[in-house]
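Form 12-C: Joint structure prediction
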Amino acid sequence: MGMRKVAVVGAGMTRFVRRAQETGRELAYEASKMALDSCELTLDDVDGVALGTAPDSFDGVHMKGEYLSDAAGAWRKPFLRCYVGGGTGVFAPIQGWYHVASGLFDVCLVVCEEKMSSCQPHPQGAFLTIFDHTTERALEPNLLWIFALEMNRYMHMHGLQKKDIALVSVKNKRNAADHPCALLGNPDITVEDILNSEVLAWPVQRLDVSPVSDGAVALVLASENVAKRITDVPVWIKGVGWSLDTAYWTNRDLYYPKYVEYAARMAYEMAGIREPRKEIHVVEPYDPFDYKELHHLEGLLLADKGDAPRLTAEGVTARTGNMPVCPSGGLLGVGNPIAAAGLMKVAEIFWQLRGEAGKRQVPGKPITGLAQAWGDLMQVGTVVILGIHG
Amino acid sequence: MFRQVAIIGVGHVGFRPLTPDLSYKELMYEAAVKAYDDAGVDPRSDVDGFVTVAEDFIEGTSIFDEYVPDQLGAVLKPVHTICGDGLHGFVAAYMQILTGAMDIVVVEAHSKASNVLTLEHVMAYAMDPVYNRPLAVNPHFVAGLEMNRYLAETWTTREQCAQVVAKNKRNALYNPAAAYGADIEVDAVLRAEMVADPLSRMDISPHADGAIVMVLAAKEVAEALTDVPIWVQGVGWCNDSFSLENRDWSAAIYAAKSGEMAYRMAGITSPWQELDFAEIDDTYSYKELQHMEALRLCRPGEAGPLTEEGATELSGELPVNPSGGSLGMGHLLDASGLARLLEVVLQLRGEAGPRQLPDVETGLAFGWRGIPTTSGAAAILSN
Amino acid sequence: MTSKIKEFPGVALSSSDFEEKKVLFTEWAPNAQYAWDAGIAIGRYLAELKQGRIIGTRCDRCRRTVVPPRNFCEWCFRPMDEWVYLEDHGVVNTYSVTYVRWDMVRVKEPIIPAVIEIAGASKGMGIMHLLGEVKPDDVKIGMRVKAVWKPPEERSGAITDIQYFKPME
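Section 2 - Result
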């Protein structure tokens, strides 16, 4: 296509914990430093910084991008902060991509940070303010409600049962037991555990959901020439896509994430992928709730509508299956510091394609992987496709 | 080299102290309709990407990007929000076209400052929660500290700063879109109530509401759609230290580096000679002077005397803020930088009416995100 | 990654660290107050709610009647053509049964949020509200429900002028 090629050459992340002692700035620093160290670069080598971080209400700082900027390496450098709700974690590398693909930058540091625990009395309360200030907020909705409404619709349209969906939570929390940064890895969790957990907003139960967490992740992106000097194993950004649906979510049928499909198609086209189910070898869709993994796999066109649960039940999406999904353990297992969680997925694909995922490594030397995040009022899809071949 | 990109359409609503008749969505819609009409594009079919700028605590809504696509014609299209000034959104839109993946990208910024009842408290909420916020001081103190340092280091006087206020408010009288045009005496600025010494109330730009939408297009498309493409010659943006304790209080380094990057791209080595005019952030009166020096329009300490001599008036050698700037138009929060850029476009197109500068070819726009940030962005355009 | 890196940064704190004062912290309550201009479309929506009516808008090009009303059609990107009075009853598109409030405080009585497709609007055009006077087990997708309004003198021009929707029988 004649576009400048961009590669991921380094990555770093902090542990995802319920409540970190580190400030948001410190978390951002730790991840950024680790990412630079991983490819033996210093801040002098960085031309620009792209930061992704979600609601300011959590960290308790207005314009928190500015507050985090120099901790994320943007001292006397061009700095941009992107924000598309939960989609941010996969959008930040897209923003990094357009920095480098534009030709204006050779090396871009992409950082995602979230410190949700500062918000009192409970970070969940901050989500009240994402609803429309006039037509919805007075009803005092909890974010869990909107997920429950969507989950119910999805289950209703496809005749699904909770047990079909709980398998995802089991898979991911077990996968996460092999992730050194995971908050909720549990090698022994069962479907019964999920089904017996407290009902929060039926059909959503406690173990269907990923928890509020703190954490940060960073990637180093580089242009082709520079990437080849930095590492023998650059992982190329083959395609990017993003799409934002209408804010009027109550006017949409929530059973299918059309915006994820639009984002995926944009990325597949850029990557020259015609048969995603054959050409994508490892997938990290956004899984803040177990049913979301299924919902998103369908939106990504990796499963027929309503069929993703069957793929899960048949082991297709297990680490050793034909299409491993969330080998990292996902948000359900590793944790959900919103923007950092999405970037964690991109980092996972990076490590998987390089064969560096340790105990989480999927067999078969995957060549192409996809990471996807979602956010807003059941509204935004962001997709990045990475490939080990140029 | 780089793909050539032009601004092919602009639209705005405002700017006024209040906009009680329209919701933010309706403001954005109106600005968008005007911009798309100006550009001759249908957002549903012609526009490849959209960039908006917003901050949650200014809007009073978390994850504000949720609420932008509908009124811009961006439903189910690639849209993202930048937490930055409109000029940051502009450079993001510009970069997307440079990649070659997109040909037409839209950028939007707005202000509903009138709807934020506790704006100064919200501004204070941007300060470091551990080191600065507990001091519980009116946030303008950050500008007061910097102004004091600036005056001391450059021998600029309060009178010269007050002249910036008088000049910009007078320019605004010729700008139908300006909210605060007035003919004032320098003395009035000096005698006004102190907010954070040496900043008086009149040294601080008052707020206004409004929305701005611009359409950018790659060369081939731009030339097909308009006879007056306004070309992007260079862009630059930079952040300095966030920490109040670690920053350099005398020079606006973020502005210097933004300018450096933009001048390099545009091939400009003597800004004063090669630019015909400039729209430069004047959130606080002294900022216009400090930024002029940082942007190398003149040497440190010269901006004050140049203003005194009238060199930056509409009739001067290098008019600065012919629009009236924030002091004259009203401070549009994060849309301020895009308002600077808007004026550059209008001047270069010959559409600036009573304040039209003669024979202009190249203009600079520079925005700053306001206290307590050290975040700025620059763009150089030509016709 | 995992093979090369031994220690990952991030120190986890627990509630007892705070209770036993092992860590220092600062607190701040933001003073963030807003008065949002409702504008033309929502201004009318609220005024009609005060009158005990639900109003929508219609785009003649795509022929959708939508609610909540907006004065532009986001799909066609053109102004809406007319205001349309809708019914104050509809059909449940989806719902949930919850025992947690917005701030995660547990409640004994279930809260039943739902998306209700309003009769008179195009298919799928719903609003979010609560269901009441119904047992959780009796709620079904597709159920017909009707608005229960506050008495006229208590209405203020807000979405809460409707208390909840209850089953139509």
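Section 3 - Comments
Chain A touches chain C through 67 residues (CB under 8 Å). Chain A has one domain: 6-120+211-387.
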